[in-house]
Amino acid sequence: MTPAELRAARETCGLSQADWAMALGYRSTDRKNLRQQINDMEGGRKPITPQVARLAEMFRRFGVPADMTGGNL
Asked: Are 6 and 64 within 8 A, CB to CB?
């Protein structure tokens, strides 16, 4: 998955970068840190792991369960 495809999947799901990070399994009490994780992947500065790519594609196709974003949907 390319950085542009990751961003497109997030946008298809209608999530902020922080909520997308939570859905993908990243955890932090600092939403800025969560946002930065996704920003770095979407900007090509951090690799997109196969696990993240699979989850992103699954969410793009089927949607993200509300409980996977910490209730911020």
From this structure: no
Among 12, 14, 31, smallest CA distance to 22 is for 31
For residue range 5-20, list pLDDT tens digits in order.
999 999 999 999 999 9
Which residue segment(s) compose the domain that 19 sits in?
3-62
CA distance 8 to 14: 10
Inside any domain, residue 30: yes
23-35 pLDDT tens trace: 999 988 899 999 9
Specify burial of residue 46 (Cβ count, 10 A radius: 0-12, 13-18, 19+): middle
